[in-house]
């Protein structure tokens, strides 16, 4: 038998095995190529998604920096409005002349100082929350279509905050002053106050404002946007979207939380005045004398008022509180959520 015949017989006997083996090998090659193709597609998709996420992140970071700078710029004008409308310095200058109505002026100063502190906290929270929302909306529109909003439209939209610094602040100041009078008129100027007593007064003012019909948190939209447009252009749509967000429960809860933090910052700054009267750590307490816990120190209301007022003249309260608001993680999360919602 020839070699060729042997080979032919071998293939004949194992034909099925060769067919099956061929199918397996061919299938393996096909599956390998298919898997390689899918892997390349997945890698390309992942690369595109990574680039897109990175672009979004960089764009959002840029919007965030713009927002923070806008807040700092507008807060200067806002705090000037507060000082101009709640003029404690004028009353202090009159007191320096030792007038006959000195007691009445001191009582008026008491209302003005607490009103100024509360309005600083409320107004700055309202400004920051509004601008965080506005800049995030602008960012969402510009990311989807960089030509969708002209510079003039953006300026017009952001200028809506002027309502808060004009009619909105006048409305806020009247409301807070009314409630400050209710809380503080019974408090005598000679009353000795601990830090906890001051905190209780702050909480009473916050509660009184919160339960009022014109509560600035519940009516945040009306303070910022007293009127809504009727037409349906892009600008009008942005205004209505802003109004919806300002009316949302999430934003109201966050604004309330920020206001509470503001009064905590005020209490912390006043605590420096109180603790400076305690015994310092390196000093020895004279034998027979008891250590005076700084948080048990009492100061008369008349002594507290100049210290509170000094927090504004030195810009200690507005500046420190504003810096905390700018970097506050919950406000950052609000910005991110609003931004993402306009990319969907």
What can you tell me about this protein's structure?
The chain is mainly α and 344 residues long. The protein is built from 13 helices and two strands. The protein has helices spanning 3-13, 15-85, 88-95, 102-144, 151-158, 162-184, 195-210, 220-224, 234-246, 249-275, 301-313, 316-327, 329-341, and strands spanning 192-193, 299-300. A two-stranded antiparallel sheet has the order 1-2. The N and C termini lie far apart (78 Å).
Instruction: Please state the overall shape, judged from the principal axes of the Cα atoms.
Output: elongated
H and E order:
HHHHHHEHHHHEHHH
Number of strands: 2
Share in β-strands: under 5%
Between the first and last Cα atoms, what is the distance in angstroms? 78 Å
The percentage helix is over 70%
Largest beta-sheet details: 2 strands, antiparallel
**Strand arrangement, largest sheet?**
1-2
What's the overall average pLDDT, rounded?
Answer: 85
Tell me the Rg in angstroms: 33 Å
> Structural class, judged by helices and strands?
mainly alpha
Q: Report the uncertain regions.
A: 278-289
């Amino acid at each position: 038998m020839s070699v060729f015949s042997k080979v032919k017989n071998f293939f004949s006997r194992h034909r099925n095995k060769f067919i099956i083996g061929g199918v397996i090998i061919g299938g393996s090659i096909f599956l390998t190529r298919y898997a390689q193709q899918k892997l390349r597609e997945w890698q390309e998709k992942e690369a595109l998604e990574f680039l897109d996420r990175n672009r979004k992140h960089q764009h959002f970071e840029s919007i965030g920096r713009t927002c923070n700078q806008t807040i700092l710029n507008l807060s200067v004008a806002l705090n000037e409005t507060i000082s101009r409308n709640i003029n404690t310095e004028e009353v202090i200058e009159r007191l320096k002349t030792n007038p006959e109505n000195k007691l009445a002026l001191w009582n008026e100063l008491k209302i003005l100082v607490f009103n100024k502190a509360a309005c600083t906290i409320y107004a700055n929270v309202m400004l920051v929350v509004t601008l965080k929302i506005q800049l995030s909306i602008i960012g969402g529109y510009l990311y989807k279509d960089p030509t969708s909003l002209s510079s003039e439209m953006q300026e017009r939209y952001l200028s809506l905050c002027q309502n808060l610094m004009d009619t909105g602040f006048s409305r806020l100041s009247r409301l807070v002053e009314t409630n400050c009078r209710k809380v503080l008129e019974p408090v005598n100027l000679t009353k000795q106050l601990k830090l906890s007593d001051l905190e209780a007064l702050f909480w009473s003012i916050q509660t009184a404002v919160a339960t009022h019909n014109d509560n600035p948190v519940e009516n945040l939209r009306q303070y910022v946007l007293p009127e809504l447009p009727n037409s349906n252009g892009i600008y009008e749509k942005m205004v209505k979207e802003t109004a919806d967000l300002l009316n949302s429960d999430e934003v109201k809860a966050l604004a309330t939380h920020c206001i509470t933090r503001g009064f905590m910052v005020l209490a912390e700054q006043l605590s420096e005045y109180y603790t400076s009267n305690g015994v310092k750590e390196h000093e020895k307490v004279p034998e027979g004398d008891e250590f005076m816990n700084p948080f048990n120190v009492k100061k008369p209301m008349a002594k507290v008022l100049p210290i509170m007022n000094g927090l504004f003249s030195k810009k200690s309260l507005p500046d420190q509180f504003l810096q905390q608001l700018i970097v506050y993680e919950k406000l950052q999360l609000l910005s991110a959520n609003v931004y993402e919602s306009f990319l969907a």
